[in-house]
Structure formats: structure tokens, C-alpha cells
Amino acid sequence: MRRTPHYLMTDPEEVRRLIRNNPWATFVSPTSRGLIASHYPVLLDDDHEHITIVSHFGRPDEVLHELGRHEILVIIQGPHDYVSSSWYAPGDLVPTWNHVTAHLYGTPEILGEEENYAMLSRLTDHFEQHYRNGRSLAEDEPGTRRAAKGTVGVRMRVDRFDARAKLSQNKSADVIDNITAHIAGHNPALAREMGRARGGGPASTTQRPPSEHNG
Hints:
Layout: H1 12-21, E1 24-31, E2 34-41, E3 43-44, E4 52-58, H2 61-64, E5 72-83, E6 96-106, E7 109-110, H3 113-128, H4 141-148, E8 151-157, E9 160-166, H5 173-184, H6 188-198
Antiparallel strand pairs: 1-2, 1-5, 3-4, 4-8, 5-6, 6-9, 7-8
């Protein structure tokens, strides 16, 4: 991503928050056959020292990605939207796109069969808890264990990350307020991120490069 200093997001806790709130990830692998991309949900693993994610691949994606043989890129895309120059001061004519995005780099570890099933159970429980009468894999463990054999679980410790919170920080306070008000009506998640950045809260950025952080 373009390295504009005042958009850098270098706090690992903010990257964790971005992952929690936006678990649908893009996995990109530089394989011997060229680039391969797939999309799967991710969860944060219980690792307080490093950012670590867990997920699963449907077979034969793990073969196509050559998992475990090289570093991969995992893209986490948070709220984003077009910003019209009609919301700027007169004479300011260049529109843009606001977004919160993180690129995570690491070499995934392939989970064993029991770890994979435990991870799939946790993944299911995590999302089903938000639904009335949510289901669990434990309701039919023999059947869901058979289905789990069609997947490969992975755990990836993030060795480095490159994250951006581009939220109109280069504009004046009144223009930011105007942009936020326009966006709030159709993209409240992005408006909330802009509010966090404006308030100097956890979404605030620093000018240190993300390479100074090991997850």
C-alpha cells in the first residue's frame, strides 16, 4: 500500500480490533504456479504476545496455495467508501476513497485433525452465537467430523503487518465533520472509524513504519 505517514496504523491492538470486526479475509500465496488467492473467515488465536490468526481451507486449496512452504499475505479489509469532492471546500476538487485495511504476513502452520475440528467448532460457535437458536457442530459430532475432513486448518503468527487508516486526516475539522455526516447515512461503520480517528482514540496513527512492530 502507499506509504503516507499520517495514515499508518501501527498499534497491534488496533489491527486485532480490525480483524475481530472484519473476519472475512483474502489469502494470497506466491506459489510455484504464480499467485493464488482464496477467501476464508479468520479468528484471532489466544496469543497475547503476537497477532495470530486461525482459519481453514477447503481442499484442495491447501495444495494450490502450497501452505506451509512460504510466506503468504492475508488481507483484512475494514470499512471503506468513496469520498466525493462535493463535500470539500470550494476549489478542492480531487475526490478520494477512505478505508481501513491491514496486510498481514506470515508462514501458516497446518493444524492436525483434532486441532482443526476444535478450530472449526470454535469458528462455528463464534458466529452462531449471534443468531437465535444458533447451532453447534457438537449436535452431530460424527457427521460434522466427517465434513471436517474436507478442510485443512491453519494457524498463522503474523511476523509483520502493514496497515492503513485513511480517514480524511489531511482535511480541516469542518470538512471532516461534513464528510462524516454524509457517510454516516449509508456507511455507519466507516463513519465510526472516522470519529475514532478524529477523536485521537485507538484508531489514531503514528509516523513510525509498521516494520518496527512484530505483530
